[in-house]
From TrEMBL:
Topology of the protein relative to the lipid bilayer: Multi-pass membrane protein
Keyword field: Cell membrane, Membrane, Transmembrane, Transmembrane helix
Family according to the record: Belongs to the NKAIN family.
Swiss-Prot/TrEMBL GO biological process terms: regulation of sodium ion transport
GO CC annotations, alphabetized: plasma membrane
Protein name (record): Sodium/potassium-transporting ATPase subunit beta-1-interacting protein
Organism this protein belongs to: Musca domestica
PANTHER family, sorted: SODIUM_POTASSIUM-TRANSPORTING ATPASE SUBUNIT BETA-1-INTERACTING PROTEIN, T-CELL LYMPHOMA BREAKPOINT-ASSOCIATED TARGET 1-RELATED
Taxon lineage: Eukaryota, Metazoa, Ecdysozoa, Arthropoda, Hexapoda
């Protein structure tokens, strides 16, 4: 796989990550899920770092993007466990909405979903939304939709890690080849050239 192909692979991965995270950010805003909104914002920044690093061959940006993707996989693995109620995690808790009582937008707005509200119950907190008593006829329940979102992000992050490692390998390989005469391995034009003094008796 040539350096150009590896570069295009990473750029394409960053582009897909950006499209999918913007889509996810929109729905997290609609559901007022503040913790994911905050983390998604950082992910967008690091995708920009990765794209910039791949486009301009800046190794520090690529390594930063690489490290972030490991953290991003960890975050999405946590979300999968959260929405599947693994262990002591409870998807009905206020952990992700930071105490606002909000829930995933897909709970009542998913395809085919028909929420039923108890008309006798009013919210004690006027700023806390009333959740439906039950939701019927959803094609996919909100927890499955969120798990799929996180799964897609994990897959794209894996491809991002792979692309970043492949490009980093090119830089390291070039460092070995061009690091001579106290030169900078980033580019040949930065190579330091020392004059050679010849002492001769004519």
């Amino acid at each position: 796989m040539g350096s150009c192909t590896r570069r295009h692979f990473l750029l394409s991965t960053c582009f897909l990550q950006m499209i999918t995270i913007i889509e996810r950010q929109v729905f997290d805003f609609l559901g007022y899920m503040w913790a994911p909104i905050f983390v998604n914002f950082f992910h967008i920044l690091f995708i920009i770092f990765g794209f910039y690093g791949a486009y301009h061959f800046r190794i520090k940006y690529i390594i930063t993007y690489l490290i972030w993707n490991f953290l991003w996989i960890g975050w999405n693995a946590f979300l999968i466990c959260f929405y599947l109620n693994v262990g002591t995690l409870d998807r009905d808790s206020d952990l992700l909405n930071l105490g606002t009582g909000s829930v995933s937008w897909f709970e009542v707005n998913g395809y085919g979903c028909k929420p039923t509200y108890n008309t006798n119950i009013t919210s004690e907190d006027p700023f806390r939304p009333i959740r439906p008593e039950r939701v019927d006829d959803c094609l996919l329940t909100y927890d499955i939709v969120e798990v799929v979102h996180s799964g897609v992000q994990c897959i794209l992050a894996f491809f991002g890690i792979l692309g970043a490692i492949l490009i980093s390998y090119i830089f390291l390989d070039e460092d070995d080849r061009f690091d001579f005469m106290n030169g900078d391995a980033k580019s040949p034009q930065h190579t330091v050239v020392h004059p050679i003094l010849i002492d001769c008796d004519c």
